[in-house]
């Protein structure tokens, strides 16, 4: 496989998926055959149109990555694709909230933090003295 063919392949992956991860790029250069095998599986289960539409699959991916405590960047890549597909920020949050009863607050928070950063969500600040999540006192 030539360097140009590897480049074409990674570009097609990016176009088909709407994202590529670091390991995809490195595998394209260093172990192309395994990348192809893994990508074929992902293609059949995730990218190929079957019964579930792409929006639904993205929401499932976001929840499963949240429950599995995947990296924030990986969760965010699917949040971005979902938003590009027209899934609303609120629909994505509702999907992430499914992680609460199944995987607990710690897993949920990782997915929530990924979502919050991508959509630019903010909150309501208390007007009483409290500790923030980092253990630092907060003044009203």
Short description:
The protein is mainly α and 140 residues long.
Walk me through what this model shows.
With 140 residues, the protein is mostly helical. It has 2 domains: 1-48, no CATH class; 51-122, AhpD-like. The chain has 8 helices and 2 strands; from the N terminus they run ααααααααββ. A two-stranded antiparallel sheet has the order 1-2. Strand 1 and strand 2 form a beta hairpin. Helix 4 packs across helix 8 (105-119), helix 5 (72-84) crosses helix 8 (105-119) and helix 6 runs antiparallel to helix 8. The longest helix is centred in the N-terminal third of the chain and has 16 residues, at 32-47. The model has no long low-confidence stretch (mean pLDDT 92).
Enumerate the spans where pLDDT stays under 50 for 5 or more consecutive residues: none
**How does the helix and strand content classify structurally?**
mainly alpha
Please give the share of residues in helix.
55-70%
Shape: elongated
Biggest sheet overview? 2 strands, antiparallel
What layout of secondary structure does this protein have?
Elements: H1 3-17, H2 22-30, H3 32-47, H4 54-67, H5 72-84, H6 89-97, H7 99-103, H8 105-119, E1 130-131, E2 137-138
Antiparallel strand pairs: 1-2
Helix pairs in contact: 1-2, 2-3, 4-5, 4-6, 4-8, 5-8, 6-8
Features:
140 residues, mainly alpha, AhpD-like, 2 domains
């Amino acid at each position: 496989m030539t360097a140009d063919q590897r480049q074409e392949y990674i570009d097609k992956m990016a176009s088909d998926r709407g994202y590529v991860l670091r390991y995809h790029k490195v595998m394209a250069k260093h172990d192309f055959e395994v990348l192809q095998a893994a990508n074929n599986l992902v293609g059949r289960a995730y990218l190929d149109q079957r019964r579930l539409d792409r929006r639904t699959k993205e929401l499932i991916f976001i929840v499963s990555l949240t429950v599995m405590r995947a990296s924030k960047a990986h969760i965010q890549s699917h949040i971005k694709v979902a938003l590009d597909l027209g899934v609303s920020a609120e629909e994505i949050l509702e999907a992430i909230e499914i992680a609460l009863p199944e995987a607990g607050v710690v897993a949920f928070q990782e997915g929530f933090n990924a979502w919050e950063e991508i959509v630019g969500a903010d909150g309501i600040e208390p007007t009483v003295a409290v500790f923030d999540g980092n253990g630092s006192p907060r003044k009203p």
